[in-house]
Design a protein that fits this description.
It is built from three helices and no strands. The chain is mainly α.
């Protein structure tokens, strides 16, 4: 699956498992004290800020590939 060897799949799933376990432990008290609506709004705000940063980074350092073939954007691997 996506070129990942079967014996390495666990290492790819480990960060998701850790996040699912540690997230409620670390953020549960904040949800209880601050409130669900405020914490969810804060999470959406963080997500929006990260997407804006990604758009700026892509605009400044991205590759201008519109209207070009793949060979014009990068050298093919077969040519290496």
């Amino acid at each position: 699956f996506y070129g990942v060897p079967g014996n390495s799949v666990g290492w790819y799933l480990l960060p998701f498992a850790l996040g699912s376990f540690l997230g409620p432990l670390l953020l549960g008290r904040l949800f209880d004290t601050i409130g669900r609506r405020q914490m969810i709004a804060f999470g959406y705000g963080i997500g929006a800020a990260l997407m804006l940063i990604a758009a700026v980074v892509g605009g400044v350092w991205g590759t201008a590939a519109e209207g070009k073939s793949l060979e014009d954007v990068s050298k093919p691997l077969a040519a290496a």
